[in-house]
Write the structure tokens for this entry.
Amino acid sequence: MRPTPLLHDITAVVVSAGRMMNAAKVRTTKQIYNARIQKHFTISRHHLVSDPTAALRSGDVIRMTTERHSRHIRHVVTAIVAPAGEPIAERPAVLTGEQREELRAAKRGRKLARREERRGGGGEGREGEGEGAMVDTGEERDGRVVEAVGRMGEVGMVQRGLDERELGVGEVEKGLEGMRV
């Protein structure tokens, strides 16, 4: 489990919700003091907030906390303070920290299972092994020992047993022309 950040909850207003999958755009405000004119000014910043249950609506006042979710989403909703429009009871629940962690672990488990399935279970061989794919040195294919097979024609000549050391440069070029389709 990830360590919980020691930062406080931030209050924000939802600006845009329902347009991005699992995310909402919120606005936070703070006042800064301009010493030259001796006056406070309100500045606002926009943030992307993780909302996996799509519980947020535009105009909601929420509490969020800092938690790195993805490259651009760096905050997570912790509570809806004041709903706009639809009551909180009719919306999906906002996830707690433990629920978010379980969701992340389940997603990671599905990803690892797909990776193992793609690799063939035991991790032998390489992805996309077939015509023109890379094959390990010394592997046998179609009754011949393959030294190296790749996507380039020159490497394919090694498979046929043709090598520049055994043939002259002109013969290698003729062999390459015969291989081209």
Q: What stands out?
A: The radius of gyration is 30 Å. Helices lie at 97-118, 153-160, 169-179. The beta strands are 10-20, 23-34, 39-50, 61-66, 75-82, 139-141, 144-146. The chain has three helices and seven strands.
